[in-house]
Amino acid sequence: METDMTKGSPLPIILKFTLPLFLGNIFQQLYNMVDTIIVGRFVGPGALAAVGSTGTIMFLVIGFSQGMSTGFTVLTSQRYGAGDREGTKHSVANGTILSIFVIVFMTLISLLFMKPLLRLMNTPDDIFNDALTYISIICIGIVANVFYNLFSSFLRAVGNSRVPLYFLAFSSALNLLLNLLFVIVFQWGVAGSAWATNVSQAISAILCLIYIFKKVPALAPFAHHWKLSFRDTRHQLSVGIPMALQFGITASGTMIMQSAINLFGSTAVASFTAASKFQNIAMQGMMAMGQTMATYTGQNYGKGDIKRIRKGVRLALSTEFVYAIVSSAAVCLTLPHALGLFFSGDVDISAMLPWAKTYIYLCALFYIPLSTIFIFRNTMQGCGYGFLPMMGGVVELIARLIMAVFAIRFLSFPLSCAGDPAAWVSAAVFTGIAYIFVMKKVEKNLTS
Predict the structure, then answer these.
(1) Cα(377)–Cα(41) distance, rounded to whole angstroms?
(2) How many CA within 13 A on the CB side of residue 353?
């Protein structure tokens, strides 16, 4: 199931690779939505607000860890595209060892500072204990999350986007069953939902590892590969650290935005949580195309084909524009029906809907600039450039910070929600300019 993305017509290859990623991302979001839906319907709106209030922290902790480990796989993609099979195995072993250090560091740091962080974010008192319980257990499971995403990224680096989808589909089904068991039968509340997530991700990681060693010899290191290489470590950290910081900086901005939303009480938080989870489904097509471009660019950069990279980017942007328009219309039309999934029948949906509509309608207007960010950012990262994509995250952070300050100053929920659109427009402009700069630099390096 490996795919050489350096040959053939780019668009069919890109779309064929993107589809399994898109389906996999949908499963991942359903995976995440299961927690909120089951908790909201069987524990209560307060528990849903508690889980939702930790969403931005999860994005910070998990995103930082994933960004680091995913960055480690860029070298794998480049070496595979260049036909360096021995170097590919070295990069897999080196990236896995580095990921272990990331896991230990992030787990300890997140558990030590979680309580004061929740206080800093204005988490309402009536949901504070549940929020702390849920996010602390999720942090214990960082090891499972990182290894699943690392092994999946290794598979995608060699053009295999289908097998990670199969394992994720299995894991999503298992997560649903475990949520039903832990939350409804055992009545463990938000803790049960968190443990269901950890266990199902751990099983997916193990399955991916077994598959790699049995079915993908190009990614299976031998004993002599399992040692840190200075050259590989320097390259992987030079990409992984900026990618991790990019996630961290972006998450910091969303945490600031969440802090502003938390001021409006648990009803607003629960409505915003449900709406953002629903919107995340629509965003997965954009993200999948971005993930595809990271692999596509990495392999073609390894081969030295800059013209093919540029052509792939143009085709991806055209596809993303169409998707953005369709998805923005879809989320606006289906929001009232989707909101009912998150709450039991005794909850007044009409009280939740105005908060949710405010957020969704504002965001849907700006899906086109959002879609470009994923293309430009992942293309630059596929070429091994991590600093400018990271600075795009800084631009997002500044935009969200400005909107949050005004929202808190004027106690305005629409201004709180406008943090996302402001961040998307700002980052789209920045990453578009950065992409042009990077491509000129790449062309100069490859032709010199």
Answers:
(1) 38
(2) 12
